[in-house]
Write a structure and sequence with these properties.
Layout lengths: L4 E4 L1 H9 L3 H12 L3 E2 L2 H9 L4 H12 L8 H16 L6 H12 L2 E5 L2 H9 L3 E4 L1
Parallel strand pairs: 1-2, 1-3, 3-4
Helix pairs in contact: 1-2, 3-4, 5-6
Length: 133
């Protein structure tokens, strides 16, 4: 079994939770079972913001707290600030949350699994490893 770690972006979690894409469901399920699926505070915030009820919020909260977390420490923030500046200077406009998520993945040497064009763009300018589903 590989030891490669994967940070799963909100876009993939949404597809997984909706259950409309069997390839996404299979990939995410296997990574979770293998303890290779990671999350971060910003991804949890994006997921919880979309909860439809208190019950769903509580369920999602418990599920996401059970996953291994990649902390957003000072080093991550400083790198994200530098990356945001570098991208803007290059004329690349990527949402702040996506810059933070890509920085977390890079800092912890994870492959970012996503379904968002911004991450492929960020990868062209940073050391981000991506897998689009």
């Amino acid at each position: 079994m590989s030891s490669e770690k994967f940070l799963i972006d909100t876009t993939i979690w949404v597809k997984y939770l909706r259950g409309l894409d069997s390839a996404v469901k299979d990939r995410v399920s296997s990574l979770v079972l293998e303890d290779r699926a990671y999350t971060s505070e910003i991804i949890i915030m994006e997921i919880l913001r979309g909860a439809k009820s208190d019950k769903e919020y509580a369920m999602l909260y418990e599920d996401f707290l059970a996953l291994p977390h990649l902390p957003t420490d000072r080093n991550v923030w400083e790198t994200a600030w530098q990356t945001a500046y570098k991208l803007k200077k290059a004329g690349v406009n990527i949402p702040i949350a996506d810059i933070l998520i890509s920085t977390i993945a890079t800092r912890y040497q994870c492959t970012l699994i996503h379904s968002d064009k911004h991450f492929n763009l960020a990868a062209k300018y940073t050391g981000l490893k991506v897998m689009e589903l």
